[in-house]
Amino acid sequence: MLGLVLVYQVESWVMLALLLAIIAVKGFTLVSAIGFRPDAFDATGKQTKSTWVGILTVGLVLELATLFVPLGLIGRLLNIGFTIAALVYLADVRPALKEVMRRPRW
Questions:
Q1: 0.70 surpassed by pTM
Q2: Do 30 and 56 touch, CB atoms closer than 8 A?
Q3: Helix, strand, coil % over all residues of the chain, rounded to 5
């Protein structure tokens, strides 16, 4: 019986660590998106700055809500979608924005 309790305790700590990591990633992506100029988003051909900031803000707020309110199935599915959006921003949009900002202007 003690072994089973230990397994659940380890699982709880792992889930808390994952939750905090996802909150950190979503917070980082939001701060990163806010830091770029709006015309850089237009130059990359991606969504506008306000669209990305809105998506990332809602995603972060929804993730923070999981700390205080148990989400149902729809909330969890939305949370997964916003997590994917944050990862897309990190993998695709942010590198493109950095490339646009690095280009020399003649």
A1: yes
A2: yes
A3: 85, 0, 15
